[in-house]
Specification:
Blueprint (H helix, E strand, L loop, with lengths): L1 E7 L1 H17 L6 H8 L3 H13 L3 E2 L4 E2 L1 H9 L9 E7 L5
Antiparallel strand pairs: 1-4, 2-3
């Protein structure tokens, strides 16, 4: 018997967060955490952890949900890149005890 598990790739989520914030910031729009999670397609808590990590690294101002200069540079560097999916589906095999 097998089951499917969904794993969240934090690096892929970070790339999506940076690119989404850059796009919305360029349009002069504010981004809320809920909207960001919905746009990326992952849970709010996963996005919150990634944003906190990007904030600690100096790429995002988490209080304002805006990119810093280094975050903007990272987003610009991957502007034309194909990003990995943030949700990875893995099949796990389970054995049934008789």
């Amino acid at each position: 018997m097998s089951s499917t598990h969904v794993h969240i790739d934090p690096k892929a989520v970070a790339a999506h967060v940076l690119r989404h914030l850059a796009r919305e910031q360029a349009r002069g729009r504010l981004v809320r955490l809920d909207d960001l999670a919905c746009a990326i397609g992952v849970r709010r808590g996963d996005v919150r952890r990634v944003v906190a990590g990007l904030h600690a690294e100096g790429h995002v101002d988490a209080a304002r949900m805006k990119l810093t200069m280094t975050g903007l540079a990272l987003a610009a560097a991957m502007r034309d890149s194909k990003l990995r999916e943030p949700r990875v589906t893995k099949r796990a095999r389970q054995s049934r005890a008789a």
